[in-house]
Amino acid sequence: MAKPHLPFFRLITAFGIVSAVWLTNVGATESAPPVVRLFNASDLPQLARGIKLPPEARYTVKVWAPTQQTWSLAVDGPTLTLTAKIDGADETPRWQNVGGVDIKADGRVRLLVALPEAKMTLTTTSRSKSAPTAIPKPVPAALVFTTDPEFDPAPALDLIRGRVDSIAPPLDLRRVRVRTNKEGADFHAPRSAQEWRDRAQTVREHLLVTLGLWPLPPKTPLNPWVYGKQERDGYTIEKVVLETLPGFTLSGNLYRPSGKSSNLPIVLCPHGHWEDGRVNPEVQQRCIQWAKLGAVVFLYDMVGYNDSKAFGHSFLNDRLRRWGLSLVTLQTWNSIRALDWLTSLPDVDSARVGCTGESGGGTQTFLLTAIDDRIKVSAPVVMVSDSFQGGCVCENAAGLRIGTDNVEFAALTAPRPLKLVGASGDWTKLTLTRAYPAIRDVYSLVGSTDRVDAEVFDFPHNYNQTTRNAVYAFMGRWLLGINDPARTREGNQTPEKPEALWTFDERHPAPSDRKSPERLEADLVQVLGDQLDGLAPSNRSSAWQASKALLLKALKIRVGLKNPAPAELDETTVRQSSREGYTTVHSLVGRKAVGDQIPVVRFRPAEPSGRLTVIATSHGKARLISPQGEPIPLVKALLERGQEVVGYDPLFIGESFDPASPAFHRPNTDHFETYNPALAGDQMQDLATVIAWARSQPDVREVSLIGLGQAGPQVLLARPALEGISRTAVDLDEFDPKDGSVDLPASLDLPGLLQFGGLKAAAALAAPAPIWIQRAGKSFDKSWPQKSYALADTAHVLRLTPGTASPAEMAAWIDTGK
What we know:
Layout: E1 10-11, E2 36-40, H1 44-49, E3 51-52, E4 57-66, E5 69-76, E6 79-86, E7 93-103, E8 108-112, E9 114-115, E10 142-146, H2 154-160, H3 193-210, E11 225-232, E12 235-245, E13 248-257, E14 264-270, H4 281-293, E15 296-300, H5 318-322, H6 327-343, E16 348-358, H7 360-371, E17 377-381, H8 406-411, E18 418-423, H9 431-445, E19 452-457, H10 465-480, H11 498-501, H12 517-535, H13 541-559, E20 569-579, E21 582-591, E22 598-605, E23 611-617, H14 633-640, E24 644-648, H15 672-675, H16 679-696, E25 702-708, H17 711-718, E26 728-731, H18 758-765, E27 771-774, H19 783-791, E28 798-801, H20 807-816
Parallel strand pairs: 6-8, 14-15, 14-16, 16-17, 17-18, 18-19, 23-24, 23-25, 25-26, 26-27, 27-28
Antiparallel strand pairs: 1-9, 2-10, 3-8, 4-7, 4-10, 5-6, 11-12, 12-13, 13-15, 20-21, 21-22, 22-24
Helix pairs in contact: 3-13, 4-10, 13-18, 14-20, 17-18, 18-19
């Protein structure tokens, strides 16, 4: 993704009406119980947007915060503002009555407190820098609106939180730790050749999905326009325009050796971030020399450079990201289509294809080499490193380097010949001690150590003559059969003036129907949507099995969750207590190697049946408790059936939120989602971790799952990747991402959400597991799960209902399937 914009602390002023967290039954009689609504610190953005309370009543506002914080309430009509004074060092939390407010006829009220941005924002420039981080101000850990000034929230808090003696969240390292583009993934070769082959296949699929090339776009006619041939000493130069997508052109120059017309090797030359792109004199030099050596060479533009400058170099926004598309998609697709055209030429040998580029062109080189076996020799220059992964939007796509890095991408070249060249004056200075040994170990596994080589020269970031000569010698051996480096050395050469290479000018204007970024975006979304329609379940089982495999791969990569084994889990019991008919156990659950800690509450009935249900909600475990400190009816109904119930607070929700240093997402960094899961991904991983922990309990023989609120769509998206679940019920709350252009809550804003078909595809991919889907949105195509379950001969375990089930109905179905 593009670099997230750092939050500025501010007062949230957006106004809206949202559903209640809790609300007792309110009647018109004097005997009606008091109105009570209880909120956690993570609910404060909801309060800032606005809530609606039963009107014509006076409400008392109470906050739960450390004793050192004295909170006050200012009332301005329907707008309430909380502020705090800090005095002393006593961090023991207590309830404070901060004031009252009269709610008028419409019942609308909003509560403001200084907050950071609740959601990261995307930028589309590769050179934007992070703003300074503001010092966070504390917020109340919990607060109450109630018509009863004497109401005591302590019993509810006792069930909602594991710790009631402190507002401190668990020590989850994810709140403060992120991976940046200056870090690798500590790649090392696996133990065997078979392990490497399996891993290589996994990483290639990961690349194709995150590059937005899964499925590949249709290969439409390239309509090549080749003209303006220039005769030079030993070589020729021609101008080339290819239509790599309908209405989207790629310009470049084709260099050919003079006097040779058959069986010529190919060298593909993407360029780096030179200001003048492919017409830079240093870039031209290698193309001239390769043509003199006897190769057909294609030097082509980065998107937004030279002949495509009008298009710009920043093809990224929220809708594109949700469809899995980016500027990296366009550049990689251009390379694939350029190779399609080159290998179709009558004078080339399509079995001898090399690719070399520098810096950003090095990124293009190793990405193309990793996913396209037609590249037989590769030389990514001054880019392969474990200390810097790429700083431009054209090198960073959402999810691209999660769990992997450029070193592993380069290793995917094996066993094909690979040449690395680093420079002492940039991030590749440690090539010989860091990147190269790990890659060489891969070549050793496959028995091809003679095909990999690396050098570092004492220069700044470059692709100068010294570096070029090293690449000529290596690639010349494998492409041209020249074993004497002296024969490949570059002599004096004269580069062309820029205007001699540009494809568009007054005499040769650009096509009038070239698409703008906005038009191309719309067309790509339409094409991908049509492709997904073609992959939908049909009456042919074999066709759906093939489609299912493709879509499931994309879903699993985009969701990104891992199902941890019992040995990978860590559990700490915080406390437990007994109440009439059930026991509660508060724990912290996480993965040992990650350092995450998820607050969990486990309700155990007096006579457990061995069945357990995990309930995921958009407000965490707090949604399972009434303001009076009792389980909600759904939890009670499950407990009465002998079911254990587990609730949890995913990252940045409930007890996982830090009110002393409030933040709604991990720290911002350049191209955050290239290296780190989005919040939706982190929270779905929490779901997987909690389920794995529940399944590992020795007294549990069956685990089911319920998703409510915004957690309903989360659960459905994650369900095909989750293991060991008996029955699943989700209330989608009519969530509808439409075509991806609407604003989405961060908890559901998953990169690639629509790339694999979204919720309808997730439902279809859940077959044959029993599932009950309630209140689907307008764009949810029910035919997807209906046909998928019918093909699996399990239509009887799929339920699709327009309304919400009662607690008793939900509990009965979860417990018995009826």
